[in-house]
Protein backbone atom coordinates (compact mmCIF):
# COMPACT_ATOMS: atom_id res chain seq x y z
CA UNK A 1 0.00 0.00 0.00
CA UNK A 2 1.33 3.39 -0.98
CA UNK A 3 0.90 5.99 1.80
CA UNK A 4 -1.09 9.13 1.07
CA UNK A 5 1.85 11.38 1.94
CA UNK A 6 3.86 10.01 -1.04
CA UNK A 7 1.21 11.30 -3.41
CA UNK A 8 1.14 14.70 -1.69
CA UNK A 9 4.92 15.02 -1.91
CA UNK A 10 4.93 13.93 -5.57
CA UNK A 11 2.25 16.51 -6.30
CA UNK A 12 4.29 19.11 -4.40
CA UNK A 13 7.45 18.36 -6.37
CA UNK A 14 5.64 18.70 -9.69
CA UNK A 15 3.95 21.90 -8.50
CA UNK A 16 7.36 23.27 -7.47
CA UNK A 17 8.87 22.50 -10.86
CA UNK A 18 5.90 24.17 -12.54
CA UNK A 19 6.19 27.25 -10.32
CA UNK A 20 9.91 27.49 -11.08
CA UNK A 21 9.24 27.21 -14.82
CA UNK A 22 6.59 29.92 -14.63
CA UNK A 23 8.83 32.30 -12.68
CA UNK A 24 12.16 31.66 -14.40
CA UNK A 25 11.49 31.03 -18.11
CA UNK A 26 11.35 33.83 -20.65
CA UNK A 27 9.32 32.03 -23.29
CA UNK A 28 5.57 32.73 -22.96
CA UNK A 29 4.57 29.30 -24.26
CA UNK A 30 6.72 27.56 -21.64
CA UNK A 31 5.12 29.76 -18.99
CA UNK A 32 1.69 28.54 -20.09
CA UNK A 33 2.89 24.95 -20.10
CA UNK A 34 4.15 25.47 -16.54
CA UNK A 35 0.67 26.59 -15.51
CA UNK A 36 -0.72 23.33 -16.92
CA UNK A 37 1.94 21.48 -14.93
CA UNK A 38 0.80 23.14 -11.70
CA UNK A 39 -2.86 22.37 -12.44
CA UNK A 40 -1.96 18.71 -13.02
CA UNK A 41 -0.06 18.59 -9.74
CA UNK A 42 -3.19 19.81 -7.95
CA UNK A 43 -5.22 17.15 -9.79
CA UNK A 44 -2.89 14.39 -8.59
CA UNK A 45 -3.35 15.36 -4.96
CA UNK A 46 -7.14 15.69 -5.38
CA UNK A 47 -7.48 12.21 -6.89
CA UNK A 48 -5.22 10.80 -4.17
CA UNK A 49 -7.37 12.37 -1.46
CA UNK A 50 -10.50 11.11 -3.22
CA UNK A 51 -9.11 7.58 -3.10
CA UNK A 52 -7.93 7.65 0.48
CA UNK A 53 -11.04 9.39 1.89
CA UNK A 54 -13.23 7.03 -0.17
CA UNK A 55 -15.34 9.86 -1.51
CA UNK A 56 -15.85 10.67 -5.19
CA UNK A 57 -15.96 14.48 -4.60
CA UNK A 58 -12.25 14.85 -5.32
CA UNK A 59 -12.63 13.36 -8.79
CA UNK A 60 -15.51 15.73 -9.55
CA UNK A 61 -13.29 18.68 -8.60
CA UNK A 62 -10.67 17.27 -10.97
CA UNK A 63 -13.26 17.25 -13.76
CA UNK A 64 -14.00 20.94 -13.14
CA UNK A 65 -10.28 21.76 -13.01
CA UNK A 66 -9.76 20.04 -16.37
CA UNK A 67 -12.60 22.08 -17.90
CA UNK A 68 -11.15 25.32 -16.50
CA UNK A 69 -7.68 24.34 -17.77
CA UNK A 70 -9.05 23.71 -21.25
CA UNK A 71 -10.83 27.08 -21.26
CA UNK A 72 -7.68 28.78 -19.97
CA UNK A 73 -5.59 27.14 -22.70
CA UNK A 74 -7.98 28.26 -25.44
CA UNK A 75 -8.19 31.89 -24.27
CA UNK A 76 -4.50 32.09 -23.30
CA UNK A 77 -3.29 30.77 -26.63
CA UNK A 78 -5.69 33.16 -28.37
CA UNK A 79 -4.01 36.01 -26.48
CA UNK A 80 -0.59 34.65 -27.49
CA UNK A 81 -1.56 34.63 -31.16
CA UNK A 82 -2.91 38.19 -30.90
CA UNK A 83 0.35 39.20 -29.19
CA UNK A 84 2.46 37.49 -31.83
CA UNK A 85 0.60 39.35 -34.56
CA UNK A 86 1.56 42.66 -32.90
CA UNK A 87 5.04 42.02 -31.49
CA UNK A 88 6.50 39.00 -33.36
CA UNK A 89 8.18 37.71 -30.21
CA UNK A 90 7.75 34.95 -27.64
CA UNK A 91 10.03 36.67 -25.11
CA UNK A 92 8.11 38.03 -22.12
CA UNK A 93 10.75 40.74 -21.55
CA UNK A 94 10.03 42.37 -24.91
CA UNK A 95 6.33 42.85 -24.18
CA UNK A 96 6.57 46.26 -22.52
CA UNK A 97 3.55 48.03 -23.99
CA UNK A 98 2.42 49.26 -20.56
CA UNK A 99 5.79 50.92 -19.87
CA UNK A 100 5.44 54.70 -19.77
CA UNK B 1 9.08 -2.62 -1.45
CA UNK B 2 5.90 -4.20 -2.79
CA UNK B 3 4.96 -4.31 -6.47
CA UNK B 4 2.53 -1.42 -6.01
CA UNK B 5 5.20 0.72 -4.35
CA UNK B 6 7.66 -0.17 -7.09
CA UNK B 7 5.20 0.93 -9.78
CA UNK B 8 4.56 4.15 -7.86
CA UNK B 9 8.30 4.77 -7.55
CA UNK B 10 8.78 4.31 -11.30
CA UNK B 11 5.85 6.60 -12.13
CA UNK B 12 6.95 9.24 -9.64
CA UNK B 13 10.56 9.30 -10.85
CA UNK B 14 9.48 9.38 -14.51
CA UNK B 15 7.00 12.19 -13.79
CA UNK B 16 9.56 14.29 -11.92
CA UNK B 17 12.16 13.77 -14.65
CA UNK B 18 9.69 14.56 -17.41
CA UNK B 19 8.45 17.72 -15.70
CA UNK B 20 12.04 18.92 -15.22
CA UNK B 21 12.60 18.27 -18.94
CA UNK B 22 9.39 20.19 -19.71
CA UNK B 23 10.52 23.39 -18.01
CA UNK B 24 14.22 23.23 -18.97
CA UNK B 25 14.07 22.31 -22.67
CA UNK B 26 15.23 25.06 -24.98
CA UNK B 27 12.93 24.18 -27.87
CA UNK B 28 9.20 24.53 -27.02
CA UNK B 29 8.37 21.57 -29.27
CA UNK B 30 10.55 19.31 -27.12
CA UNK B 31 8.85 20.76 -24.04
CA UNK B 32 5.42 19.86 -25.39
CA UNK B 33 6.54 16.33 -26.26
CA UNK B 34 7.94 15.83 -22.73
CA UNK B 35 4.63 17.16 -21.42
CA UNK B 36 2.76 14.57 -23.52
CA UNK B 37 4.77 11.73 -21.96
CA UNK B 38 4.16 13.28 -18.53
CA UNK B 39 0.39 13.32 -19.08
CA UNK B 40 0.39 9.65 -20.07
CA UNK B 41 2.24 8.85 -16.84
CA UNK B 42 -0.24 10.91 -14.82
CA UNK B 43 -3.11 8.96 -16.42
CA UNK B 44 -1.39 5.72 -15.38
CA UNK B 45 -1.13 7.05 -11.83
CA UNK B 46 -4.88 7.79 -11.84
CA UNK B 47 -5.52 4.14 -12.75
CA UNK B 48 -3.64 3.14 -9.58
CA UNK B 49 -6.04 5.37 -7.63
CA UNK B 50 -9.19 3.70 -9.00
CA UNK B 51 -10.08 6.74 -11.12
CA UNK B 52 -10.49 5.22 -14.57
CA UNK B 53 -12.80 7.97 -15.85
CA UNK B 54 -10.33 10.68 -14.86
CA UNK B 55 -7.52 8.70 -16.51
CA UNK B 56 -9.49 8.51 -19.77
CA UNK B 57 -10.34 12.22 -19.62
CA UNK B 58 -6.71 13.03 -18.90
CA UNK B 59 -5.66 11.25 -22.10
CA UNK B 60 -8.50 12.59 -24.25
CA UNK B 61 -8.65 16.22 -23.09
CA UNK B 62 -5.07 16.96 -22.03
CA UNK B 63 -2.97 14.72 -24.27
CA UNK B 64 -5.44 14.83 -27.14
CA UNK B 65 -6.84 18.35 -27.23
CA UNK B 66 -4.87 20.81 -25.08
CA UNK B 67 -1.41 19.67 -26.17
CA UNK B 68 -2.37 19.70 -29.84
CA UNK B 69 -3.50 23.29 -29.31
CA UNK B 70 -0.09 24.08 -27.76
CA UNK B 71 1.71 22.38 -30.67
CA UNK B 72 -0.24 24.49 -33.15
CA UNK B 73 0.73 27.71 -31.38
CA UNK B 74 4.38 26.61 -31.06
CA UNK B 75 4.32 25.99 -34.81
CA UNK B 76 3.02 29.51 -35.44
CA UNK B 77 5.84 31.10 -33.44
CA UNK B 78 9.27 31.39 -34.97
CA UNK B 79 11.48 29.27 -32.74
CA UNK B 80 14.72 29.77 -34.67
CA UNK B 81 15.16 33.37 -33.53
CA UNK B 82 15.84 32.44 -29.91
CA UNK B 83 18.19 29.53 -30.47
CA UNK B 84 21.16 31.57 -29.24
CA UNK B 85 19.41 33.53 -26.48
CA UNK B 86 19.37 32.78 -22.76
CA UNK B 87 16.19 30.96 -21.77
CA UNK B 88 15.99 32.07 -18.12
CA UNK B 89 15.51 35.47 -16.58
CA UNK B 90 18.58 36.91 -14.87
CA UNK B 91 16.77 36.62 -11.51
CA UNK B 92 16.21 32.86 -11.84
CA UNK B 93 17.90 32.00 -8.49
CA UNK B 94 15.21 34.06 -6.77
CA UNK B 95 12.56 32.09 -8.63
CA UNK B 96 14.27 28.87 -7.54
CA UNK B 97 14.27 29.89 -3.88
CA UNK B 98 10.66 31.02 -4.11
CA UNK B 99 9.47 27.76 -5.61
CA UNK B 100 11.45 25.67 -3.11
CA UNK B 101 9.28 27.31 -0.43
CA UNK B 102 6.29 25.58 -2.05
CA UNK B 103 8.07 22.25 -1.72
CA UNK B 104 8.85 22.81 1.96
CA UNK B 105 5.22 23.73 2.48
CA UNK B 106 3.96 20.56 0.76
CA UNK B 107 6.35 18.34 2.73
CA UNK B 108 5.18 19.95 5.98
CA UNK B 109 1.56 19.29 4.98
CA UNK B 110 2.27 15.69 4.04
CA UNK B 111 4.05 15.07 7.34
CA UNK B 112 1.23 16.57 9.40
CA UNK B 113 -1.78 14.79 7.91
CA UNK B 114 -2.88 13.07 11.10
CA UNK B 115 -6.64 13.40 11.48
CA UNK B 116 -8.63 12.33 8.46
CA UNK B 117 -12.36 13.09 8.27
CA UNK B 118 -14.90 10.29 8.31
CA UNK B 119 -14.48 7.99 5.31
CA UNK B 120 -17.08 8.35 2.57
CA UNK B 121 -19.33 5.73 0.98
CA UNK B 122 -17.27 5.19 -2.19
CA UNK B 123 -14.98 2.37 -1.11
CA UNK B 124 -12.65 0.57 -3.48
CA UNK B 125 -14.99 -2.44 -3.55
CA UNK B 126 -18.03 -0.32 -4.38
CA UNK B 127 -16.18 1.45 -7.21
CA UNK B 128 -14.79 -1.79 -8.57
CA UNK B 129 -18.26 -3.34 -8.56
CA UNK B 130 -20.15 -0.56 -10.35
CA UNK B 131 -17.41 1.60 -11.87
CA UNK B 132 -16.49 5.16 -10.93
CA UNK B 133 -18.51 6.57 -13.86
CA UNK B 134 -21.82 5.72 -12.16
CA UNK B 135 -20.88 7.44 -8.90
CA UNK B 136 -19.37 10.48 -10.62
CA UNK B 137 -22.45 10.87 -12.80
CA UNK B 138 -24.79 10.61 -9.82
CA UNK B 139 -22.88 13.22 -7.80
CA UNK B 140 -22.36 15.48 -10.80
CA UNK B 141 -26.05 15.69 -11.67
CA UNK B 142 -27.39 15.97 -8.13
CA UNK B 143 -25.03 17.73 -5.70
CA UNK B 144 -22.93 19.51 -8.30
CA UNK B 145 -25.54 20.34 -10.91
CA UNK B 146 -25.18 24.13 -10.48
CA UNK B 147 -21.37 24.18 -10.86
CA UNK B 148 -21.85 21.86 -13.84
CA UNK B 149 -24.11 24.41 -15.59
CA UNK B 150 -21.79 27.30 -14.68
CA UNK B 151 -18.84 25.41 -16.16
CA UNK B 152 -20.75 24.96 -19.43
CA UNK B 153 -21.21 28.76 -19.49
CA UNK B 154 -17.48 29.15 -18.86
CA UNK B 155 -16.70 26.97 -21.87
CA UNK B 156 -19.03 29.07 -24.02
CA UNK B 157 -17.22 32.23 -22.86
CA UNK B 158 -13.87 30.59 -23.69
CA UNK B 159 -15.05 29.69 -27.20
CA UNK B 160 -16.30 33.23 -27.87
CA UNK B 161 -13.14 34.71 -26.33
CA UNK B 162 -10.81 32.60 -28.45
CA UNK B 163 -12.71 33.46 -31.64
CA UNK B 164 -12.81 37.20 -30.86
CA UNK B 165 -9.14 37.35 -29.85
CA UNK B 166 -7.83 35.68 -32.99
CA UNK B 167 -10.21 37.38 -35.41
CA UNK B 168 -8.66 39.37 -38.24
CA UNK B 169 -8.37 43.09 -37.49
CA UNK B 170 -8.95 42.64 -33.76
How would you describe what is shown here?
The model of chain A has no long low-confidence stretch (mean pLDDT 89). Chain A contains 3 helices and no strands. Chain A is mainly α and 100 residues long. Chain B contains 7 helices and no strands.
**Pair of chains with the largest interface and how many residues each contributes:** A-B, 72 and 94 residues
The helicity of chain A comes to over 70%
Query: Roughly how many Å is the radius of gyration of chain B?
Result: 21 Å
Q: Count of DSSP E strands of chain B? A: 0
Rough shape of chain B?
A: globular
State the end-to-end distance of chain A: 58 Å
Considering the chains and any ligands shown, give keywords for the structure.
heterodimer; A: about 100 residues; mainly alpha; 3 helices; elongated; B: about 170 residues; 7 helices; globular
Helix and strand layout, with pairings?
The complex is a heterodimer of chains A (100) and B (170).
Chain A (H helix, E strand, L loop, with lengths): L3 H21 L3 H25 L4 H31 L13
Helix pairs in contact in A: 1-2, 2-3
Chain B lengths: L2 H22 L3 H21 L3 H25 L15 H21 L11 H7 L1 H11 L2 H21 L5
Helix pairs in contact in B: 1-2, 2-3
Amino acid sequence: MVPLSWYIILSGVIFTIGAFGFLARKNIIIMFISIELMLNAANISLVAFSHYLQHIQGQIMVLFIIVVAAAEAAVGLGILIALFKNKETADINEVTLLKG
Amino acid sequence: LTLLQGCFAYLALAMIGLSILTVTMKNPVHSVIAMLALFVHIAALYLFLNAELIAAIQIIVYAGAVLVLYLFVVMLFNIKEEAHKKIYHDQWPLAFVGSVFFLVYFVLIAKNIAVLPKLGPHTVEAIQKKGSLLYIGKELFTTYVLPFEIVSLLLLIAIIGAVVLTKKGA
